């Protein structure tokens, strides 16, 4: 019933004045042609600055490079990839950001094909086995409606509520009128799902899902922003279940008409996978294709100047940077570009000095964004010390179960169960998460305290004995942006920047700090497409590049006509 859910954080390319046509390939050729033309009357090769070398930034840069556009990527950190990062030590290999991805977005499939990464794809064992804690013990999450009815995850009362939902919420529901009251616009995720399915569904299905994708809780998020697809399904069909079924049938019909992937191979786009060597392999491949010389690490953007005055001209953007790299000190001088793709968090954008036409472009309309911290604990135990090992993806712990049974963690991925080659043969590797809105203070606790908490929870859930043989603690101070009922103000602010700054494109929208959440998210609905998925981030960067290309092409035509 949640298979068609999509986050509001996906790129709003359709609202941008330079939205490219659907025939993307034909739109890319003129840019490539103008970049390599020997005609003295042709416009000079265009250049784009990409700010941020995370996944969306690298994806945008890769697409621009493939289209013949000169690209420079500026990254303040000393490495590319943002919160996608893989590490290894003592025979263990673990991801510190996104753990897996899907090919739910066509751009993700194309990118993997183009990079030649098909042979490196690694699929987790028993990935459809995902657990949730109920009555203090891991319980297998049902994978289909029939299994759900047989499962002990929900009570008989909640199962009846699920069964009756299509009949209680019919298409004649007043919310289908298209005119939605302010009350409905601000309805919380918890209230929305409780109306449709009852409180138990919120406590045991929605709460841990929300904690995994936003580190928040169902009452703090607006349904129309957190789950816009489901919110629109209710407006259109009344029943979420009926709407999800009909939407799935529509998508399936469209896929039959259009055929399979661009490579001609039939592939399941909803299956989770990683890469040999971890998710860092994707970052490394992108970085290599974009080129070391085009990715300026340790280089902070200090100011951006939009010099357009009326009709845009070549080199309408001037950027000044500060580089920590001694070999790149010349970058401190201002450089000019024809367009800018921004992928940095809004909190970072607020520290940059922007001007337009020589006058300050005040960013006081950018909303203040609060961030939630998260600690990631990687632990290993001897196999003989884990008395109740579970095959599968991992286990999530609803907040209600945390309260009842004294559990302190959000959930745990069974890392070596998914990928046996990521730990020595005699050990199990686990990745556990601590933090979120309910346990915000715990996220910043010392490693020694977190080690005790994680070991205690794993003892209760997997009957682990003794102490871990291996421990790594990764702390993300700004792991999750806390976008609540005022989320629309974030999108409005981004839209205002794009509208008032010619040649400025924001990729990823507020996805930049949510990569970690994909790990916890994939304990659930991991086979379904969602706005927080790695594939969606790839698509967002690619679409931002398409917008920039369309913009460059339109102004190249203008230049040539004069």
Automatic annotation (TrEMBL):
The lineage of its organism: Eukaryota, Viridiplantae, Streptophyta, Embryophyta, Tracheophyta. Residues 55-509 form the Amine oxidase domain. Catalyzes the 6-electron oxidation of protoporphyrinogen-IX to form protoporphyrin-IX. It comes from the Eukaryota. GO terms for molecular function: flavin adenine dinucleotide binding; oxygen-dependent protoporphyrinogen oxidase activity. GO terms for cellular component: chloroplast thylakoid; mitochondrion. It comes from Paspalum notatum var. saurae. Keywords: FAD, Flavoprotein, Heme biosynthesis, Mitochondrion, Oxidoreductase, Porphyrin biosynthesis. Its EC number is 1.3.3.4. It is found in: Mitochondrion; Plastid, Chloroplast. Pfam families: Amino_oxidase. Belongs to the protoporphyrinogen/coproporphyrinogen oxidase family. Protoporphyrinogen oxidase subfamily. Pathway: Porphyrin-containing compound metabolism; protoporphyrin-IX biosynthesis; protoporphyrin-IX from protoporphyrinogen-IX: step 1/1. One of its GO terms (biological process) is protoporphyrinogen IX biosynthetic process. Residues 1-22 are annotated as: Disordered. Its cofactor is FAD. This is Protoporphyrinogen oxidase. PANTHER family: PROTOPORPHYRINOGEN OXIDASE, PROTOPORPHYRINOGEN OXIDASE 2, CHLOROPLASTIC_MITOCHONDRIAL. It catalyses: protoporphyrinogen IX + 3 O2 = protoporphyrin IX + 3 H2O2. InterPro entries: Amino_oxidase (IPR002937), FAD/NAD-bd_sf (IPR036188), Protoporphyrinogen_oxidase (IPR004572), Zeta_carotene_desat/Oxidored (IPR050464). Binds 1 FAD per subunit. It is an enzyme of class 1 (oxidoreductase).
């Amino acid at each position: 019933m949640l298979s068609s859910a999509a986050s509001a954080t996906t790129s709003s390319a359709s609202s941008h004045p330079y939205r490219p046509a659907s025939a993307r390939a034909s739109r890319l050729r003129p840019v490539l042609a103008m970049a390599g033309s020997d005609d003295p009357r042709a416009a000079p090769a265009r250049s784009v600055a990409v700010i941020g070398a995370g996944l969306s930034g690298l994806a945008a840069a890769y697409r621009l490079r493939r289209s013949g556009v000169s690209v420079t990527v500026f990254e303040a950190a000393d490495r590319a990839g943002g919160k996608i990062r893989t590490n290894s030590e003592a025979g263990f290999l673990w991801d510190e950001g996104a753990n897996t991805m899907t090919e739910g977005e066509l751009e993700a499939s194309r990118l993997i094909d183009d990079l030649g990464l098909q042979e490196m794809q690694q699929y987790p064992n028993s990935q459809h086995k995902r657990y949730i804690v109920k009555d203090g013990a891991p319980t297998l999450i049902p994978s289909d409606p029939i299994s759900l009815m047989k499962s002990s995850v929900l009570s008989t009362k909640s199962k009846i509520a699920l069964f009756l939902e299509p009949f209680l919420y019919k298409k004649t529901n007043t919310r289908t009128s298209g005119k939605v009251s302010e009350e409905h616009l601000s309805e919380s995720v918890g209230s929305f799902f409780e109306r449709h399915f009852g409180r138990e569904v919120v406590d045991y299905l929605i709460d841990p899902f929300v904690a995994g994708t936003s580190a928040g809780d169902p009452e703090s998020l607006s349904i129309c922003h957190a789950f816009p697809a489901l919110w629109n399904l209710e407006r259109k069909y009344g029943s979420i279940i009926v709407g999800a079924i009909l939407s799935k049938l529509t998508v399936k019909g469209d896929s039959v008409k259009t055929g399979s992937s661009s490579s001609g191979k039939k592939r399941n786009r909803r299956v989770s996978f990683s890469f040999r060597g971890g998710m860092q392999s994707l970052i490394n491949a992108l970085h290599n294709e974009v080129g070391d010389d085009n990715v300026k690490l340790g280089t902070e953007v200090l100011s951006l100047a939009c010099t357009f005055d009326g009709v845009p001209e070549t080199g309408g953007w001037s950027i000044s940077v500060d580089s920590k790299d001694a070999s790149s000190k010349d970058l401190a001088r201002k450089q000019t570009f024809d367009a800018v793709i921004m992928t940095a968090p809004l909190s970072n954008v607020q520290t940059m000095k922007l001007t337009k036409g020589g006058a300050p472009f005040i960013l006081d309309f950018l909303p203040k964004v609060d961030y939630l911290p998260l600690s990631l604990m990687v632990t290993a135990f001897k196999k003989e010390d884990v008395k109740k090992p579970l095959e599968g993806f991992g286990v999530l712990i609803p907040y209600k179960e945390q309260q009842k049974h004294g559990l302190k963690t959000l959930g745990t991925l069974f890392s070596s169960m998914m990928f046996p080659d990521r730990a020595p043969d005699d050990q199990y590797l686990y990745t556990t998460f601590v933090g979120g809105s309910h346990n915000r203070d715990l996220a910043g606790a010392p490693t020694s305290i977190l080690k005790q908490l994680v070991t205690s929870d794993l003892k209760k859930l997997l009957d682990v004995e003794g102490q871990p043989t291996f421990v790594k603690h990764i702390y993300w101070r700004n792991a999750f942006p806390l976008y609540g009922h005022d989320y629309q103000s974030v999108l409005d602010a981004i839209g205002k920047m794009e509208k008032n700054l010619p040649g400025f494109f924001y990729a990823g929208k507020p996805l930049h700090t949510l990569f970690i959440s994909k790990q916890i998210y994939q304990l659930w609905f991991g086979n379904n497409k969602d706005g927080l998925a790695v594939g969606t981030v790839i698509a967002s960067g690619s679409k931002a590049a398409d917008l920039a290309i369309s913009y460059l092409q339109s102004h190249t035509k203008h230049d040539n006509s004069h």
